[in-house]
What we know:
The protein has helices at 31-49, 73-83, 95-98, 102-114, 133-164, 187-201, 206-215, 228-236, 281-285, and strands spanning 18-26, 54-63, 89-92, 118-121, 126-127, 176-179, 182-185, 244-246, 249-251, 259-261, 269-271. It is of the alpha/beta class. The strands form 4 sheets. The protein has a 5-stranded mixed β-sheet, with helices on both faces. Strands 6-7 form a two-stranded antiparallel sheet. α4 (102-114) runs antiparallel to α5 (133-164).
Amino acid sequence: MARTVQKITFAPQIPKALRVAAYARVSSGKDAMLHSLAAQVDFYSTYIRHHPGWEYVGVYADEAKTGTKDSRENFQRLLADCRAGIIDRVLTKSVSRFARNTVTLLETVRELKSLGISVYFEEQNIDTATADGELLLTILAGFAEEESLSASENQKWRVRRNFEGGKPWRYFMLGYRNQDGKLSVIPEEAEIVRTIFADYLAGDGITAIIKRLNESGYSTQSGHVFHKSAVERILRTYAYTGNLLLQTKFRDNHLTKKTLKNNGELPKFHAAETHESIISMETFEA
């Protein structure tokens, strides 16, 4: 019996589309920066959708968050989706937009690499899928961290110079607004402040004061209803006496940016009669 050989043909295998996402961030909430963020989102959305062999997953964007923290909501959502296995590649504008902390940056990139996910940094033209990608990334991340430290120190210098000159760090509070670099009284809001102090000294509790304020239709300087924290902050605000106590808090370092109470680690500055008072010193200290 003659042996027959039959040729079997297979349908050509269609390459699996690469699932691609992008991450964008701006470090300021100003309109110009938010416009820049919107432009980044639009660019990456269009670019990924029209790239052959790519499947669009989404653009993860954070507004006004520092690159040194792990609290960026959409950055954390991006990482969660990467761990869930729905992303193969991440695009981002630059090293500093992704993270300025070298340790955090490299830990994140290495974790993603272990999951089979590559990251491409457009501005530096670094692709972690390549052999020399991580080496270049380490060098550039070091420069980015130094830049973050320098910016932080410059900001601290400006703030301390203002403190030494008796200028407040915060102008926006109930009863006052910034007018030519000084605290200017807003009469209708100042009356609310006086009422809060008067009621508290009369023996009313915080809860009763909040209830009366909200029932009267009053609101905070941001236009919100009053809560416990808002009333307590007003009762603690020394600036209502017309004087300023400056640098009562400070940031521990440029990486964590954790705010700490100043217990003598740094000098405090007392500036007397810098603006019109809303309450007397006797009322504040009562």
